[in-house]
Amino acid sequence: MSLASKILQKADKTGVIANPVRGKWFAIKFTPDLFAGDSISIGVGFINSAGVIRTRLADDYQRLACFYDDRLNISDVEFLAGLLDEALAGLHEEEWLKSNFGPSVTFTDASYAAGRSETEIIDSLFFNAVPIARTKVTERDKQPRQRFEQESTTCNKIGKSLGDRYKNIASKFHPNGQAYDIDNQGHRLKLHFRDEGRAAGYVASALIADVWKAEVRVRRGVDSLRTLRNCVPEERCGLFVVRPGETHGLNDSFLNQFDDLLEEIRWRLDREQIDLRDADDTDLMADQIADWYNVA
So which domain of life are we looking at (predicted)? Predict the structure, then answer.
């Protein structure tokens, strides 16, 4: 037995393990210009002991414009990152090893990582391995500006808030989503929490400065819940939308357009007996989820 194994074995027996959560991590690389071939770390992934992946990707890609000027559309990069975050979150290691996201997206080999919690590990790796996430605060940065946030970032904040105040639902909440079986034919749906036969919920973050992209995020949840409702009609379904507010620095035109969109979706879901709740703050959203779940 190696010295490291003996130390860990002894620590296990004495209950003094400093870093009880162990797994593997990898960097997520993006190549903006395939001809130049330069790769930039835009996020990290952590594979826990169950083989499930959690991710964190950068929220702001404006720094890339300094290197690639008009050759790179930052909005497209943000949208790609959102899709990548959605695809990786909750994926199993075996699926990840066989995945192919095209020539612009690559991953480093997985390496050992440990810490006190998965969130602590991911945050530490993220700020050390993703240079574009390190920003120098200037007077210009302090001004209100359009905000972009990955859905996994928003959902992790909600998960933490639930864990701090609502233990009964926190244990069922999966910030990166989880694939659930919905029938006997192998069909699965991604949801953020589910109490089978009783209630299921999907969280959509609309914290992105583009109405169309915000709509894509919301309608992804609508599709999942409609499918679940058709397959398991006795199960109560809820869509929870983290919506932009005045504090997010978005203009009135965007907020008004999104209000109209959300009301139209709410009207349609009401007719299908699917609940929709919204809030512009992750703590308030945690309250909404707990309130809805506890009366389901």
Answer: Bacteria
